[in-house]
Amino acid sequence: INDYKEQVDKMVARGMNPDDFEDFLLIHKTGMPPHGGLGIGLERLTAQLIGFDNVRRCCLYPRDINRLRP
């Protein structure tokens, strides 16, 4: 999704508060380019290659519910 309104609508439909995703939505406001959205990422690929069960073990700055910003 690269459209701000569409992204906010989907968040609201899933019971999420868009205010909690202010930084993420700012990208959509300023112009998110069209993308495939696969999101495999280097950390996920590394976790698969090494055989880790948790991608956070392959991430220098893992994000979770307690750490949303590095």
Description:
- With 70 residues, this protein is mostly helical.
- 41% of the residues lie in helices and 0% in strands.
- It has 2 domains: 1-34, no CATH class; 38-65, no CATH class.
- The longest helix is centred in the first third of the chain and has 10 residues, at 4-13.
Poorly predicted ranges (pLDDT <50, ≥5 residues)?
none
N- to C-terminal distance:
24 Å
Domain count = 2
**Can you tell me the overall shape?**
globular
* Individual helix count: 3
Give a short account of the largest sheet: none
Average pLDDT reading: 87
SSE order, as H and E? HHH
Number of strands: 0
What's the helical proportion of residues? 40-55%
What percent of residues are in strands? under 5%
Computed structural class: mainly alpha
Q: Rg, please?
A: 15 Å
